[in-house]
Fold this protein.
Amino acid sequence: MDLELQFGVERLHARYAQALDSDKLEDWPDFFTEGGRYRIATAENEERGLPLPVLYAEGRAMLRDRVASLRHANIYEPQRYRHIVSVLLIEKVSDSVVVSTANFLVVRIMQDGATMLFASGRYLDRIRVPDMLYEERVVVCDSRRFDTLLAIPL
Amino acid sequence: MDLELQFGVERLHARYAQALDSDKLEDWPDFFTEGGRYRIATAENEERGLPLPVLYAEGRAMLRDRVASLRHANIYEPQRYRHIVSVLLIEKVSDSVVVSTANFLVVRIMQDGATMLFASGRYLDRIRVPDMLYEERVVVCDSRRFDTLLAIPL
Amino acid sequence: MDLELQFGVERLHARYAQALDSDKLEDWPDFFTEGGRYRIATAENEERGLPLPVLYAEGRAMLRDRVASLRHANIYEPQRYRHIVSVLLIEKVSDSVVVSTANFLVVRIMQDGATMLFASGRYLDRIRVPDMLYEERVVVCDSRRFDTLLAIPL
């Protein structure tokens, strides 16, 4: 039972990471419920309770807009991400909701091949079951040093 | 059966990592049995059979002392860790003991936001079941280059 | 059922990584079927469909040759790897074959203790079940910047 759920959440996180790493940004909104919320924040602001997300989007329509502007603006240098997700903990809060936390690292690869540790932090997720869709995904980044290239979702 | 155990050990490692990453150092001794041993060593010394741990503590009382001195001395610059744990292998050696190995990476984030790959290595664990407590946790670090800031448990 | 298989593939990947990280290169060919294929490629060439692997070996005999020349040539500076494997997704394609994808990071530790993020990328695997042996393992590296030391299998 718990095993099934753990496996299901792991698989959801993995499909999400794979979509971003494969530049399938158009699939990204479909990992969320219709009104799903996505937020990138810094650990510092989260701790201080400051309501200053680096990025906030609510609902699939807004997530799709975000992808569309990324595709059209196209201001950023071509780059690739590689996600590592680990230290997953889940908790069932009701028949239809699971919350989960997980650590992540993201490596960024620029077009010339230069590779760097780009971001680390925690995913704080609220997942609707059995659909396995994010009602909320909060990406808490450890560092407040944000690269201005921060445009692709994490 | 094996699945349950694998899941249990994964969850133990994840709770441990989360406690350290969330600066809940006071919870750290409770992951060990009453007489549990904790040791940080370098791969080089382990291979040569040199009994020179970077850090050694035995028993919850000593682990608590360690946390207390960290809190009071407070000589280190504020920093945050982010653990990644992977490549887990477990083996049941008796009804009450499981041994496990796992790879880890630790990213360190300084107060100014600077992020670096701080440590990599292997956890060699002896876990009491079904309590899921470490009888022994040996942290074998790949590099012998140890930062003098090495104060927070890994 | 799926859980058993997921666990089995995870365990295979973990044993493989552990063998390489422990410098047990002689065990490496035994993770493959008799005619198993191993290939290291770059993401760039894979996308362009260019048949230019960085390394290619087919069959255990060839894999053993590769290990033997590594051991005898011994031109490289002593180094250690540390693998992190994450974001695993599996799919059963027949009763005897599972395909899987997973993300990896490899940290390299030189003899003087210097540590660096060495490679990141994706494993694309074709695994024979229930033997749990690689029929094919393709290592797609994110960066085309390949260190000339690239000699140890990934």
In short: The helical segments of chain B are 2-21, 43-48, 60-73. Chain B has a mean pLDDT of 90. The first helix of chain B runs from residue 2 to 21.
